Structures are given as structure tokens and as C-alpha cells.
């Protein structure tokens, strides 16, 4: 992929439709450990501990009485707040202005990047991720590892532009101090926010998972592993539907770029990490690790908590240093309202042996079978009820 770079002194800016109508935001390269943002003119705050809890609570907020919003999405379709039509001069970047992109407000901030709500000259709302370049003191040059990560993320996003389950990439620019990744600005909320205070029905969870698995199957077919599947990185465009989008490709890895699907690094969020990642086993399968995280997501959607398998994996890592025997916790009755088919799918995704887990395409096929059977059963039940009502009227 050829990255788009422009120097303000090179002459006229290109056409403004480079930004396109596409828009969402990306998370920081890596994960946001602590940040705050504004949305709909209310201030929200999330603090994520760098050290995983021994008894992790996934659905928790720093301010339990405040509504929760994601920095990746916007619940307002307008790029410009109605209460403030004047952009902040100090937020503007010369490189973006040369491209006709105007920054309006900050959406989220991390250790290495800041995400802004912006607009093109045609008022198309976009999100701009600004990554500050790190300069090595000894050489005075940009850190090569950081540059490789940014370019790799951009190449992956660009290659996935045809995937409806992935945030749409618009453009990539840079100047002497920053990199700029321009993406679409998504409506809706991330899955974390969607689940706060409300558990999903089994059907809602299955539909959401179908959208996630479709997107993931497309990624894996292209040799790309996301490596950070979690609630916060899945945007549910409309609750109860299959319309979801994956965001934050800061950890993503592509076999075509790195020439291997096996990893020697162990990124991700602790509660969603597979056992082989937590135990730091070299040469693990990136795609199988993504499937484990999908199993965690499905379980949380159904029950609002991490499954025993995740807790056991985390506990084993903690117990290894202290030589403590880990006992499996049991919560009888929690599966009572979930069908046997969905239980089997979740258990399959959470297989401790990576080679025993399904591929994204296999899981998607199994999920389609479950949904088809549910539809057939519901149709049959409705037909019997309608027939009984007709006979009663007669």
C-alpha cells in the first residue's frame, strides 16, 4: 500500500472527497489505559486498570451514576455541536487544514494518540486519530518500531475497506510531528455501553455474534488477526441486529506483512486473553486466540460476566508463582435459560486446546444452523397456536 502524505509547502491540496462519506474512529495504538472524553456535551470518564484484577468485573464503570459513552462512536450525526459553531483554533493541524479537514472536538486521548471529531469542507463527519511521533534521543529520528506499527495498522485498515464489518478507512497523512489516520465516524454505541444495565436475550446475542463472526471470517481469510477482540472494540450499530463493526486495529497482525501467523508478542486485554497468551507460549495461533475472545464476548452478552474458563486461566497464571491449587468455580443454574446448541457453541469457542477451537467460518456455520433451527421452531409453534385459536373460534 502507498501511504498518502502531503507537505503543506508542496502546493495545492487534493480534492476534498479524499475524506469520503465514510467515517468511524479508531482506538489508540494499543489500548487506552485511562482517558476521558466529551459526547453530546456531557463529560464521561473511564479508567481501566493496567493490572488485571484477580476477580475481574467486565461491566463496570468509574462513575456508576453517569451514562457511559464510547470514544469510538458518536451518538450525534452532526459533526459540529449546535452550541458551538466555532472550531477551536488550537486543535487545528496545518496538514489537515490543507486537506480541508477541520477539527471540532476531542473524542478520546491515550498515551500515544488522540482521537478527534472532525469534518470535511462538505460537512461530512469524520474521525481523525492523531499519533504523536516519538523521536529517539540518540539518533534524532522517529522510533522505527512505532513507525512500523502505525504503517502496519494503516495498511491493514486500507486492505479491509471492502469489509462491511470493519470501520472504514479514508486517508492517511503525516507531517514532521504527527501521523493522521482519517476514518468514518460511526453512529451507535460500542458493545460495552450497550450491555451496561441490560443483559442481552439469547437471540440478540446470537445475532450480534453472527455479525462479529462474519467480520472476523473475512479478516482471517485475508490472513489478518485482530488480536484485541473485546466489548469496547465492537460497535453495535443497531441493537438487536447483526450490524456490528470492529474498531481499533492497533494490535492487528497480517501474515502478508509479518510473513507468519504465529506471534512472539502477547498483546490484548487480560480478561479476553486465551490460556496460551496468558502463559506466554511462543508460536501461538493468532486466529485461535481471536476465537477464544469471541467466546468470552458471547458469554458476557448472555450473563454479564466473564466465564469460568477465563477466570480459571487468569487464576492459573497467578497461582503458578505461589504453587496454589486452583478449584473450578461452579454457578449452577446460570445456563438454564440458554439453549443446548448455544451452550455447545460457547464451549467450543472456549476450548482450552487452541487446535480444538473452531475457525471463524466454522463457528459462523454453526451459528447459522442454530438461528435456522430457532426460526423453524418458532414458526412451528406459531402455526400450532394459530391453528388452536382458529379451532377455538369455530
Automatic annotation (TrEMBL):
InterPro entries from the UniProt entry: CDPK_Ser/Thr_kinases, Kinase-like_dom_sf, Prot_kinase_dom
Pfam families: Pkinase (PF00069)
Keyword presence, tRNA processing: no
Keywords carried by this UniProt record: ATP-binding, Kinase, Nucleotide-binding, Serine/threonine-protein kinase, Transferase
Domain named Protein kinase: residues: 101-371
Entry superkingdom: Eukaryota
PANTHER family, alphabetized: SERINE/THREONINE-PROTEIN KINASE
Name under which the protein is recorded: Death-associated protein kinase dapk-1
Natural source organism: Porphyridium purpureum (Red alga)
Amino acid at each position: 500500500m502507498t501511504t498518502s502524505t502531503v507537505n503543506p509547502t508542496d502546493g495545492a491540496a487534493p480534492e476534498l472527497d479524499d475524506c469520503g462519506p465514510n467515517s468511524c474512529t479508531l482506538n489508540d495504538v494499543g489500548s487506552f489505559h485511562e482517558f476521558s472524553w466529551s459526547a453530546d456535551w456531557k463529560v464521561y470518564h473511564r479508567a481501566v486498570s493496567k493490572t488485571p484484577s484477580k476477580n475481574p468485573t467486565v461491566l463496570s464503570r468509574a462513575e456508576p451514576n453517569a451514562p457511559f459513552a464510547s470514544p469510538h462512536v458518536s451518538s450525534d450525526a452532526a459533526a459540529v455541536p449546535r452550541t458551538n459553531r466555532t472550531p477551536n483554533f488550537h486543535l487545528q493541524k496545518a496538514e489537515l487544514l490543507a486537506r480541508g479537514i477541520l477539527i471540532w472536538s476531542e473524542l478520546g486521548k491515550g498515551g500515544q494518540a488522540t482521537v478527534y471529531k472532525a469534518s470535511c469542507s462538505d460537512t461530512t463527519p469524520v474521525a481523525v486519530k492523531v499519533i504523536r511521533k516519538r523521536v529517539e534521543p540518540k539518533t534524532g529520528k522517529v522510533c522505527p518500531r512505532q513507525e512500523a506499527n502505525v504503517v502496519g495498522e494503516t495498511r491493514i485498515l486500507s486492505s479491509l475497506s471492502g469489509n462491511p464489518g470493519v470501520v472504514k478507512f479514508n486517508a492517511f497523512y503525516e507531517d514532521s510531528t504527527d501521523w493522521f489516520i482519517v476514518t468514518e465516524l460511526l453512529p451507535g454505541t460500542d458493545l460495552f455501553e450497550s450491555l451496561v444495565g441490560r443483559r442481552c436475550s439469547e437471540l440478540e446475542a446470537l445475532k450480534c455474534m453472527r455479525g462479529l463472526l462474519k467480520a472476523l471470517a473475512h479478516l482471517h481469510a485475508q490472513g489478518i488477526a485482530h488480536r484485541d477482540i473485546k466489548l469496547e472494540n465492537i460497535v453495535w450499530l443497531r441493537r438487536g441486529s447483526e450490524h456490528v463493526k470492529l474498531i481499533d486495529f492497533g494490535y492487528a497482525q497480517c501474515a502478508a506483512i509479518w510473513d507468519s501467523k504465529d506471534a512472539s508478542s502477547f498483546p490484548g486485554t487480560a480478561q479476553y486473553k486465551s490460556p496460551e497468551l496468558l502463559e506466554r507460549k511462543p508460536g501461538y495461533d493468532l486466529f485461535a486466540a481471536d476465537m477464544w475472545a469471541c467466546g468470552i464476548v458471547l458469554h458476557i452478552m448472555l450473563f454479564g460476566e466473564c466465564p469460568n474458563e477465563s477466570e480459571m486461566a487468569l487464576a492459573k497464571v497467578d497461582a503458578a508463582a505461589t504453587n496454589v491449587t486452583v478449584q473450578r468455580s461452579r454457578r449452577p443454574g446460570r445456563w438454564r435459560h440458554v439453549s443446548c446448541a448455544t451452550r455447545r457453541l460457547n464451549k467450543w469457542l472456549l476450548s482450552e486446546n487452541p487446535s480444538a477451537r473452531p475457525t471463524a467460518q466454522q463457528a459462523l456455520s454453526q451459528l447459522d444452523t442454530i438461528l435456522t433451527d430457532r426460526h423453524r421452531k418458532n414458526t412451528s409453534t406459531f402455526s400450532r397456536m394459530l391453528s388452536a385459536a382458529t379451532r377455538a373460534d369455530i
